[in-house]
Amino acid sequence: MKKIISLLFAIVLSLNVKAQATLTEAVDFTAVDCYGQDTIHLFEILDRGQYVLIDFYFYSCSPCFDACPHVVEAYEALGCNKHDVFFMEISPSDSDEICQWWVEKFGVEYPTISREAGGDKIDDTYGIKQYPTLVLIAPDRSIVLQDIYPVETAQDIVDALAPFGIEEHSCDEEPEVPVVTPEKPEATVIATSDTSMLVVWNAVENAVTYNLYQGTELVADSIDDIQYTVTGLTADTEYCFSVTAVSTTAESEKSDEACDKTFSGENVEELLLNNFKIYPNPASSEINIISEMKEADVKIYDMTGRCVKDVRICDDNTRINISDIEKGLYLININGNIEKLIINNE
Length: 346
Known about the structure:
The protein is of the alpha+beta class.
């Protein structure tokens, strides 16, 4: 009988030793913590460049009770989710209420996902069979540690994560923010009257806002669009502008200068009297232009400022083929009247 009990005990121990996730590549998930306050999106965290440590546990698991204080201590030793690694825990069976009790008992400050928030589905996706199982996911979404065992001290976790460049930090220490300098935009300038010009540019990756310059003079800053109308200009005069892209940490080089000439005063009255209607908008294969005057120059620009269509119309109701233009947002200039044009070609 003693031999049978010893054998069963050895089997249980061996199951704990082999506890690990079955995946080698992370599967994305989004869930709300057990307080319903914070939304946790796995890939969003990884895309920030952080590793993610997930502690799969449940309330009535005795080894989970033993391990949790060490996980909490390791979380604090590694910078409280501010630096190289982001901690979270997931329960496949516990309700929000039980998870809240767990959080308060052990002083857990990192997110806890309950069964009610989808913890059971995440647990099943990752193939968790034994508890606790601590999984480490790299920013490239590979699972680099399928389990950390044994967890007898916080140092066991710290040491397991160290080979991946995960270092200890104080929770009071603010992380260094990497400097991200955006690429310079491509800009174009289109005269819209004798006193105004429209400057347009392409959207730049990592840019939060844009600055507009005339030579070295800052004309406008913190522009949250990819176009800006400059007013108060002089008729029949050439103006040149450049644009910079601004991230949260840096400003790009200036774009190459783009220039145009304002309309002469004698053409302004004619321009203001000349009304146009463009339809349909959005359009797919063609657009119709109705005007009070029969003649007009029609130019369509993409968001980099490149002219993709240049047509002169000689009728008060003209149809223009746009089937050769790619799907996207454009600007259409009709004798200086600027409108946005959406093309839905597939």
